[in-house]
Amino acid sequence: MKLERELMRGAAPTAVLLDPKGDAGRAYGASVTPHMYIIKADGTLAYMGGIDDKATTRLDDLKTAKNFVDTALDEIAQGKQVTTTTSRPYGCTVKYQS
Q: Closest Cα partner for 51 from 72, 76, 31?
């Protein structure tokens, strides 16, 4: 269902990881949702943190937000070094099963 909603919003995921036990989330240290990770084709972690620099849900704030994910993906596509590799993630706390 979630994937269907993403596709309806115009997202085009190339892979989806289902992690019901939280093994991958724990391995990467995911603490909130969304906690964004960009893993390059060679398997190296290029970015981890928040989507942008505005920890808010107000649409007006998005107009001035620096989107770290978009910027990192653009830099990778252009063969450049990712300038911001980490940032503070924000969102709802991840609740892992025991």
A: 72
